Amino acid sequence: MVCHLNTDSFQHLNAAILLATLFIEKYFDWVITIHTIQSQADMVCHLSTDRLQQLEAALPLATSFSESHAEVYGWLDEMEAELKTQGSPGDTLEQVKKQHESLKVKHFSFPLMKTDSIKLRLLFHHASYALLGLSLFLDK
User: Fold this and answer.
1) Residue 124 burial (CB < 10 Å; 0-12/13-18/19+)?
2) Is residue 123 assigned to a domain?
3) pLDDT given at position 14
4) Given this model, what pLDDT does residue 140 score?
5) Residues 127, 128, 132, 137, Cα dihedral to 10°
6) Ordered mean pLDDT values, 10 residues apiece, the chain (140 residues)
7) Number of structural domains, the chain?
């Protein structure tokens, strides 16, 4: 059996093939777009997970810093008040030594944190000298 196609049938067949080709091309474009979006979503998920782990690891450090900062801030307020009660700086070496000893006693009453206590002691020792020197300088 021989099939005869007339011009109209041939045009309809070409249109159907063209439409099917366009549909397949669009389908593959969608598949590629979906794959790209899925890859980007996987990357965002991976980066978010990494960032969450970093934040969870940093939370104890931030909490410890905040608590330490509050303690240091309170201690510095106490030391400032103590310096103000000392009055004018000593005019003689004996008066300066007495004021320094008074500050030294206050220095060791500071509640040190569990970690780096030696560094903190050095820091506050230097801070007490600096505050004493600053008060001497400001009062002159």
Assistant:
1) buried
2) yes
3) 85
4) 46
5) 0
6) 64 86 91 95 94 89 85 83 71 75 62 53 59 50
7) 1
CB 106 within 8 A of CB 79: yes
Joined together, the tokens standing for residue 125 give 């020792």
Q: Is residue 87 part of a domain?
A: yes
Contacts of 110 (CB under 8 A, 6+ apart): 71, 75, 124
Distance CA 50, CA 43 (A): 11
| Side chain identity, residue 98 | K
Structural domain includes residue 1: no
pLDDT (0 to 100) of residue 73:
85
Comparing C-alpha atoms, which of 77, 88, 72, 92 is closest to residue 132?
88
DSSP H/E element including 114: none
Residue 74 lies in a domain: yes
Q: Which residue segment(s) compose the domain that 67 sits in?
A: 7-139
Q: Which two tokens stand for residue 122?
A: 């050095």
Return the pLDDT at 2: 53
